[in-house]
Write a structure and sequence with these properties.
The protein is mainly alpha-helical. Helix content is 96%, strand content 0%. The protein is rod-shaped.
């Protein structure tokens, strides 16, 4: 049983690391989607301004 505490600790560390990596990937995905929408909106508004003139 002495060795099980060490392996449980490693399991805990792996779970924490995977959670942080997954959360970071998810945040990067949300940022990328937001950036893409902003870029699309700017292009759309530029097209509208050109058509008004």
């Amino acid at each position: 049983m002495g060795n099980s505490t060490g392996s449980m600790f490693y399991l805990f560390v792996i779970v924490i690391v995977l959670y942080i990596v997954g959360a970071s990937i998810y945040q990067a995905f949300l940022w990328f989607r937001k950036w893409q929408e902003k870029k699309r909106d700017e292009k759309f508004s530029m097209d509208n301004e050109e058509n008004k003139e």
